[in-house]
Amino acid sequence: MNLRNKQHGVVGVAVGGREREHVPANIPEWDVENNAFWESIGKRVATRNLWISIPALLCGFAVWGMWGIITVQMLNLGFPFSKEELFTLTAIAGISGATMRIPSSFFIRLAGGRNVIFLTTAMLLAPAIGTGIVLQHPEWPLWTFQVMALWSGVGGGNFASSMSNISTFFPKRLQGTALGLNAGLGNFGVTTMQVVIPLVMTIGMLGSFGGESMTLVKDSGWILGKITAGTQTYIQNAGFAWVLSLVPLAVLAWFGMNNLKPISPDADRTVASFAKITYLYTLAFLPAIFMLYLYLPAPTGLGVLNMWVAIPLDIITALLVMKLAAFGTMKENVAKQFAIFKNKHTWSLTALYIVTFGSFIGFSMALPLSITIIFGDSHVLDPASGVWTHTKNPNAPSAFTYAWIGPFVGAAVRPIGGWISDKVGGSIVTQIISAVMVAASAYAGWIMMQAFHSATPEVYFTQFIVTFIVLFAATGIGNGSTFRTVGVIFDRVQAGPVLGWTSAVAAYGAFIAPVVIGDQIKAGSPENALYGFAAFYAVCLFVNWWFYLRKNAYIKNP
């Protein structure tokens, strides 16, 4: 079997042949379910695309999630914003990234994997550089930081296109492992960011080009422990550091990845493909900005919407904008991919993926600032007035020292979840981890309640961090198992858009978790946030059993 392209010449080899011929950027044939094709051509090409995709996705996660760490350091540096305002920065980045995933889930068919990964990786340079600039100006208004947080959402959007792309390169029997590697190692962007940012903030990394240092007014830290107040720090490096990896990665994506013509028929029209990506991403910003304006309190917005109204409104508006604004062949392709919404399994798997990835990214965003607030202060009740006072805790653990551990574990076990699910079936794995998450989140809520009402909250910290490590491990395994189930239920044409869509909705966890936990901390009852999450996990436990495990399930898996 030869792989040929009339415009580009021979790009494959005959089955059993030893020579390796050039593979063009736009591959005309792709039949990886044919074992002969897979062994002679497909495996080599798919593996190369996977190993370039992973670090690009990692940097996307890092840029998207960096506000969870930046806000902690802004608090340590005495930036003139309240804790509630700082929580809005992580929430804005979260909802922007989630909204960007909606058009991103359709990019591969419209524009081709190589084109998409190259351009969306290069796009991350703008929020990385912009964030480095605004962080040098604590006197600037809040909205300038909010704009950068919004722009960072491009990194969150990249996940949907990356997963959709990799799903097309591998045969179904290997999709669980391949998607687990792409997502799991890509998710290391959260951990990498949480380790790298505290480190690069300790040095003048770019010399005179990187700006002046600032003085900590509160204790900070890094992976090896505390950094005391009075130390000089370079918070702007939190953005600038990613430029050093984004530039070579964009070059590598352009010269090393491929478009699959059977999946993306118009991918060889490079300029038109870039225009489609830019156009749809620009459109996606509009509903996010509009919704945030209605949701955020003054002076940033009107504050007239509840979060649970704002999120569905944002999703519906983004879909409508994309569908109505599409034109030409793009309109036809978008309409074809909207067919996934007629399948009930799209909706059941969306709920299950919220349990796994939604929890992973939500806890990753909210955990650093939660550690700082809950364990950073001593909480003392005045018996006379019944009012709680919160003063600096001299024994407080540093969020920078511990917050990375949970995301690290969650990302590390994700490939294991995909591998196990390839062996025993995705739904049974999802069922087990959902039960674990019900118990662990309820216990985490109880620990948070104890710590937030204690003069020595640090005595509860070990239990707190261990419980969250269990939660992150469960989300990581469940990420792999849920994506494996998508590969079993949907054909190759629909699997990519479904993977993108489920990841888009689940990404709203990056908005929900910081807002819910932040609001409940402000109300003095952080435990209620975790109890609410436990209740949701219990509902999804039933959904998974009903759809895929009961005797007369719609699709037995296994």
Report on this model:
The protein is 68% helix and 5% strand. With 558 residues, the protein is mainly alpha-helical. Helix 15 packs parallel to helix 18.
Using brief descriptors, characterize the structure shown.
single chain, 558 residues, mainly alpha, two-stranded antiparallel ribbon, two-stranded parallel sheet, 22 helices, 5% strand, disordered N terminus
Can you give the helix content as a percent range? 55-70%
- Estimated share of beta-strand residues: 5-15%
Shape: globular
How many angstroms does the end-to-end distance come to? 35 Å
Radius of gyration, taken over Cα atoms and rounded to an integer in Å: 23 Å
Tally of extended strands? Answer: 10
Q: Please, how many helices?
A: 22
What integer is the average pLDDT?
86
Strand order of the largest sheet: 1-2
Q: Give the biggest beta sheet.
A: 2 strands, antiparallel
Structural class by SSE content: mainly alpha
